[in-house]
Amino acid sequence: MKRFVEQLTKDRRLSERHDIKTPVRVRLRKGMGPDRRGETRNISERGILLATDLSLQVGTMVDVLFKMPEAVSGKPTTEWLCTGHVVRIETQKDESYNGVGVQFDCYEVSRAS
């Protein structure tokens, strides 16, 4: 039991993160503005770290559309539309984007026809 507790204190994540860069489209939840483009920095089944020039704050609800790689989901690559909330902002100095951590609240997976 002690080993399990020691492991939790090192990394509390419930799903493995994958350092994968793939294009995303992100928009404010129920926002009237257009989608903004971005790129993932890492992905898990529970959340995503993405680079975007969209100005966001912790707690903001967003929609993120991207192709979930098979390496993450264990299933063939499919398009996911995820609704989530911003949990972290990493301001990048000398860059035109911010790193935005989004925790997924729910998602829809496109079905192959």
Précis, in short:
This protein has 113 residues and is mainly beta. Helices cover 12% and strands 48% of the residues.
Sequence of strands across the biggest β-sheet: 1-2-3-6-5-4
Q: Residue share in helices? A: 10-25%
Number of strands: 6
Main sheet characteristics: 6 strands, antiparallel, barrel
Beta-strand proportion: over 45%
Q: Give the CA-based shape.
A: globular
Total number of helices: 2
Q: First CA to last CA: what distance? A: 46 Å
State the low-pLDDT regions, or none: none
Structural class: mainly beta
Summarize model confidence as the mean pLDDT. Answer: 83
Q: Nearest-angstrom radius of gyration? A: 15 Å
How do the SSEs run, as a string of H and E?
A: HEEEEHEE
